[in-house]
Amino acid sequence: MSDLRDRYVADNCSIKRALDxxxxxxxxxxxxxxxxxxxxxxxxxxxxxxxxxxxxxxxVTLTEAGILGRVPYREPGQRERHEYRLTDKGLxxxxxxxxxxxxxxxxxxxxxxxxxxxLHEDCGHPVEAILRCPHDGTVLxxxxxxxxxxxxxxxxxxx
Length: 159
Fold this sequence. Notes:
Number of strands: 4
Strand content: 5-15%
Number of helices: 7
Oligomer: single chain
CATH topology: Arc Repressor Mutant, subunit A
Structural class: alpha+beta
Helix content: 25-40%
Low-confidence stretches: none
C-alpha cells in the first residue's frame, strides 16, 4: 500500500476528520461518561475532573458536531438549564470507545484487571468490538487488511 498511498493526498482523511472532533483526551472521557449515563454538566464535571472551562468547550464541540444534543430542563424553583444526550451520531461512537477500552484493558490495565466490563444487556456476557468481514463473517486482524483508494481518494499532485 505504501507506493499506492503516496499517489493520494490525505487532506480529506476520515480518521483526521474524526480526530478533529473527538481526538482529545477530555472529549473521549466526556463520551465515556455519556455512555455511562451522564447528562448534566455537574455529572460530567464530577466524574471527569477537568477544569470547568475545558468541559464547557468540549460539550460545545460535541454539540456543534451533532454528537450530543442539548436539551433544556428546569428544576422546580430554578432557572432553565441544559442536559446533554447522545444523538444517533454519538451512539455510533460506542464501537470506537469500546475498541479503545479493549486495547487499554489488554495493554494498560492494572495487574488486578480492567476496572469496567461492558456486558450484553440480554444475556449478561461481555461484549467486544471486533473486525469482521461482512461477506464471509471471518474475524480479522490488522494483518488481514488491505487498504485501497476509496471513491473520495484524491490524487496527489504529479501522481
